[in-house]
Design a protein that fits this description.
alpha/beta; 29 strands; Rossmann fold; 702 residues; seven-stranded mixed sheet; six-stranded antiparallel sheet; 39% helix
């Protein structure tokens, strides 16, 4: 059964009648191009040009206003100046038009006045139920209906083949560029939508529509920012439930890029690393370049995925085999060696062959093409590889070589129809199509061949994994106060949230410090406690490894004196006396507010690992222990927690529990918590827990 969202968007994506508001007699004008495309390229529904100054537009009857149209209108293309756009939208809503494609620009991307006008456009959509795509968009099309509702000229030099790929882009110009790249790659697709400023219909809505649509198998997207994370999560999760791959290009990664994205479509770019974590969570493949977006979309369109990560490589060039093996190593693809018995057998077939994996057949197969068949068969039968990559240089320029290659490979495809095969090969389109018709992927670049197969393997693995559920937030989760907290208060608060802290006491005299140290047990550490002094070590506000009462009393006096000298106006709440913790692995736990996704948790190892090497990982809060464990395993320094160089394994379960609890705490205080910094958080050997040695909590200002 179709959802309400799908039903509301169907007139936009699959219109049976289209009005062009601001229709022009000139095909080259913004209001003329869609008339030309709809009329000349076979739109199957009714076309209603609207222009009060003309009786006909490009040979079609024109209407003075949308009200003058006697029938219903599924979709109205708005190609009018911004100053009359709101009036036109009101007229459409009154007429009962079901959707608008708003080419008109000059809204939130331009000025505060434009932003106010865009908000009014949103209100019109919300109040009437009429869906609005844009404003400031390049349009939308449904190839299966020949509904070309765009002013892009790219369709004039070639319409796409019918297919089962849907494309969504927040950029119009890049969307058109991407359309041409896909078309020239020979891909067929059914939908293409550019969302512009998203006053109503959002990027996530389009993804959700395509995920629900039975004629769409693969979804490709170009994304600059996110307006509604819950919608995005829902769209991604629904696509995952349907087994539909999403390949996404997210831009705005740099500070300059994020600023450009904000000024382009007035959207929040958010943190690059946070987007990575969200895509990973929902099994969305992130492409870094337009070419990769096309390549992975192309690979997904075949609908065949490796069942595992074992990759076999067959090549006619030793050099290409090395290149492909290197590319596999870059993405942690498993190029496992062939069984020794099989290697020996292949050596007997071709004495000069490389047989380990990659398998180099040399040029001997030119004399006997069956040798190629036998090599492939051995790899898949004995090697049991999940996918095969091969290098055949420019064979596809020759009809004879292509036919011979196909004769050698066809028995393998018939015997192993569920094992993806990708060739690095180039030549004329006719011969490449011969390969593709046999279900064989074709790429020019050897490395890109490997990366495409790896992407397919990762997507398949992601579909086998359930999307982690988000934990409920208990009513007992502590709240963050509005006032600044000192370290002692911060640690008491996180302890209530389920992040363990050590034995400690806040004291206000040398004598009390000595008593506290005796009660806690030597050795102890002492630290200044002040909401105004954040960097305690730098001002002499921390003394370590104190082993006697006299040393504690002296340390108290020194710490207070150093603090007053460094900042005479600082508020001093006392001195913290805490048990000195030795051993274990120092880690960092933290939270921050992402402009798009809200509370985010960060994790990394302490010292240079986090600061200099940037070996950290992120998750949007909240999340459970299982996801926290996956998060921990993602850092490059995970081997240290496993027990490197004879050290005992760390208590990873205790660390995962603390991370999950911190995520729940951050989510519960999403509106009042700016950030948390737990550094260091020491993870003791397995079974002995973990403890926060310092904590900083920053409430939201104001």
């Amino acid at each position: 059964m179709s959802t309400d969202l799908y039903k509301s968007l169907k007139p936009l994506f699959r219109p049976k009648s289209i009005a062009i508001l601001g229709a022009s007699e000139e095909p080259g004008r913004i209001g003329g191009r869609p008339v030309q495309l709809l009329k000349d390229f076979g739109f199957k529904g009714k076309i209603y040009p609207v222009n009060p100054n003309r009786e006909t537009v490009q040979g079609l009857q024109a209407y003075p206003s949308v009200d003058a149209i006697k029938g219903g209108v599924d979709q109205a293309i708005m190609a009018v100046p911004a100053k009359i756009a709101l009036d036109v939208a009101e007229q459409c809503a009154a007429k009962g038009v079901k959707s608008i494609v708003a080419f008109t620009s000059g809204f939130a991307e331009m000025s505060s006045e434009g932003d106010a006008a865009q908000q009014r456009l949103s209100e019109i959509a919300n109040n009437s139920g009429m869906r609005i795509l844009g404003p400031n968009c390049l349009g939308i099309f449904s190839g299966q209906d020949c509904a070309w509702s765009t002013f892009s000229s790219s369709i004039l030099h070639g319409r796409p083949k019918d297919g089962r790929i849907g494309v969504v882009s927040q950029s119009g110009a890049f969307g058109a560029h991407f359309f041409v790249l896909l078309r020239e790659r020979g891909l067929g697709f059914n939908y293409w939508a550019t969302t512009g400023n998203e006053c109503d219909v959002q990027f996530a809505d389009c993804v959700r529509f395509m995920a629900e649509d039975d004629s769409t198998d693969v979804i490709l997207g170009y994304m600059e920012g996110c307006r509604d994370v819950e919608k995005l999560y829902d769209a991604f999760e629904f696509a995952h439930s349907k087994g539909k791959p999403i390949v996404m290009m997210k831009v705005g990664n740099s500070e300059i890029g994020a600023h450009a994205a904000a000024s382009h479509t007035a959207s929040l770019a958010g943190s690059n690393e946070v987007y990575d974590s969200v895509f990973k969570r929902f099994n969305v493949y992130r492409a870094r370049t337009a070419r990769e977006l096309v390549d992975i979309g192309y690979a997904c369109s075949f609908g065949q995925y490796p069942k595992g990560d074992r990759l076999g490589i067959v090549t006619v060039s030793g050099g290409a085999g090395v290149l492909m093996a290197d590319a596999a190593a870059d993405v942690d693809f498993n190029v496992a060696p062939m069984p020794q018995k099989t290697q020996k057998m292949l050596k007997e077939l071709i004495p000069f062959a490389g047989t380990r994996n990659p398998v180099d057949t040399t040029a001997m197969f030119y004399n006997d093409w069956s040798l190629l068949t036998k090599n492939f068969d051995a790899m898949l039968t004995d090697g049991n590889y999940d996918s095969i990559a091969s290098f055949f240089t420019s064979f596809a320029f020759s009809d004879d070589l292509t036919d011979s290659l196909m004769e050698a490979i066809r028995p393998i495809r018939e015997k192993f129809p569920d094992r993806p095969m990708a060739l690095s090969i180039f030549g004329n389109a006719h011969n490449i199509q011969k390969l593709e018709q046999e279900g064989i992927l074709a790429f020019e670049d050897p490395a890109e061949t490997i990366w495409a197969l790896n992407a397919l393997a990762r997507l398949h693995a992601g579909f086998q994994r359930k999307i982690p559920s988000r934990p409920k937030i208990p009513a007992s989760t502590p709240k963050v106060p509005t006032k600044a907290l000192n370290e002692y208060e911060a640690k008491r608060l996180i302890k209530k949230a389920g992040i363990p802290t050590g034995r400690e006491s806040l004291v206000k005299s040398p004598a009390d410090a000595a008593k506290a140290a005796t009660r806690i047990g030597f050795p102890v550490v002492m630290k200044i406690v002040s909401p105004d002094i954040l960097h305690k070590t730098e001002i002499g506000g921390v003394v370590l490894n104190l082993n006697s009462q006299s040393a504690v009393r002296k340390a108290y006096n020194d710490i207070i004196a150093n603090a007053k000298s460094a900042d005479p106006d600082a508020r001093i709440d006392g001195v913290l006396v805490a048990k000195m913790i030795g051993g274990g692995v120092e880690t960092i736990l933290g939270t921050f507010r992402d402009p798009a996704f809200g509370p985010v948790v960060m994790f990394g190892l302490g010292g240079i690992f986090a600061e200099a090497l940037k070996d950290v990982t992120f998750r949007v809060a909240p999340f459970g222990v299982k996801e926290a464990t996956e998060m921990i395993r993602e850092i490059k320094g995970y081997t240290i927690l496993q027990g490197a160089r004879g050290a005992p394994p760390a208590d990873v379960p205790a660390l995962a529990k603390a991370l999950s609890n911190l995520s729940i705490f951050a989510a519960a205080n999403a509106d009042t918590l700016e950030s948390v910094d737990v550094n260091p958080f020491v993870v003791q050997p397995k079974g002995k827990g973990a403890v926060a040695l310092d904590a900083l909590i920053v409430p939201v200002k104001g």
